[in-house]
Amino acid sequence: MNQSKNILRIGICSLLLLGLAACQQNTAPTGSDNNNQTQTSPSKESNPWKASYSNLNNQVSSEEVKSLLSAHLDPNSVDAFFNLVNDYNTTVESTGLSGDFSSFSKTEYDVEKISNLWKQKKGDFVGTNCRINSYCLLKHSITIPKLEKNDDLLFLDNDAIDKGQVFDSKDKEEFDVLFSRVKTEATTDVKVHAEKMEKFFSQFQFNDKARMLSVVLHDNLDGEYLFVGHVGVLVPADDGFLFVEKLTFEEPYQAIKFATKEDCYKYLNTKYEDYTGEGLARPFIMDNDQWVNI
C-alpha cells in the first residue's frame, strides 16, 4: 500500500468512520470540513460518569500526576513523557489549558490557534499522539513479543517518531508491533472482534497496575481489520483512578481523575461511541488484554 492511498484512507476514515481522528491529524489531506472549527469532545447532557481533569499546565498538577505514574512505571519513562507534555504546553502557549484539576462534562480546545502556534515553531513535525505517549509511558512495563507487524495505519505516527526523534529503532519496531492492525471478520458483532483483540493482546505481558486502555475501531476499507484508535494509561490514585491521555496530534494532554475504573470505561465509551459507520462494528474498549463489555 503506497502512501498516497494511505493518505486517502485517513481522509475517508475521518469523514465516514470518524475513526482514526482520535489520534491522527485533524487536518487530513482529503479532509473534514471542520478543520478550522473548535474541536469539541462528544458528550451527553447527563454523563454517566463523574470526573475532574487537568491539562498538566502547572507545577502542582504535574507533580501530583508524576508521583502517581512513577509509583507504577519506570521513572525515566515518566520523565520522558513529561518532557513531551511540557514541550507541548509551552509551544501552544497554554492556549485553553487548565492547570488545577476541575470538574467537567466536555472539553473544548481552539485547534486552529493551537495548530498555527505549533506550525510556527515546529514546522512539519506534527507532534505526538495518544499511541506515542502511551508507549512512552508503558514501554518498560510491557513485554512485547517479536511478531510480524502490520503498520499500514501508523505512517503518520512513524513519520512523527522519525522527525521528532521520539524513539530509537528498537522502540519504534516494538511500537509498531503493539499497535499493529489486527485481521478480523466482516461482522458488526463486537464479541467476535473483541475475541480477536484478546487473542492478539494475549501475546503481550501487560502491567497490572499501570493499565493500557484502548478504544478499538473496526475498519473495512481494504479488508476487515481492527485498530487502536485511541489509547491511554490508567493507574490507581488515592481516591480512585487517574487516566492520562493525549487527545490528538494537535489537541492537548488530559489527566482525568475518576472514582472507579468503570467511570473511566464509561467516559471512553461515551466519547467514542459514534466513531463507526455502515457495516462496521461499534468501537469497544480493551483493558490491557481483556474486553470491557459495557
**Helix-strand category:** alpha+beta
- The tally of domains stands at 1
Q: Estimate percent helicity.
A: 25-40%
Instruction: Indicate the mean pLDDT.
Output: 88
**What profile does the largest beta sheet have?**
9 strands, antiparallel
Order of helices and strands: HEEHHEEHHHHEHEEEEHEE
Number of strands: 11
Oligomer category:
single chain
Cα shape? globular
Q: List low-pLDDT spans.
A: 1-22, 25-45
Q: Number of helical runs? A: 9
- Taking all Cα atoms into account, the compactness measure Rg is 18 Å
**Between the first and last Cα atoms, what is the distance in angstroms?**
35 Å
Strand residue percentage: 15-25%
Domain DUF4300: 53-291
Biased composition (Polar residues): 29-46
Signal peptide: 1-28
Region (Disordered): 29-53
